[in-house]
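Q: Hi! First time doing this. I have a protein sequence and I read that you can turn it into a structure. Is that right? Here it is:
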Amino acid sequence: MEGTISLGIYDQSGKLIRVLHQNTELNDFTVGADALGTRWDGKDDAGQDVPAGQYHARGYLIGPLNVEDLGQTSPPALVPDTNTVLKIRLVRNPLRKDKKPVVELGVGFNVSGSYLKSSDGLPLFTVSETPNVSHVWIAMKNLNVIDVWQDDGTKAHQFRISNIDQMMAFDCGEFTLK
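A: Yes, that's right. Below is the predicted 3D structure, encoded as structure tokens:
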């Protein structure tokens, strides 16, 4: 499966403390015989050193998602920013013996636009680079299509994302920071 990688570092409580890679191309990693390599400087997202201890790295390979811009539309009758999440069944990781895992997928925004994210906050895929988004909504269209609305305070804009099930979760394991 080809695509981009989003990878996060988590503390012992499972809290995301650092987005190590977001929508990163495979060629930005060190390619080994049987693995991709990367480095972490021991800092959190605020640039502060984290204490010594156990940490966990996990992420997602994001396959070829299709984004269709549907233009200005009325958002669904949902309350914005209520942490709405959708359950999406992912591609099975061939290195694990489990069935197709399920991820809780939401939508977030910042000054750079809107993005899909895992329920623990790891940004996975950029939906739009529209600045000044103030509200976002997400809704399931069918098993592999979702709709995302974003509002900049003057108008709502809709995007349809298909092939949403073309993601694969992976776990890099636990490690000790000394």
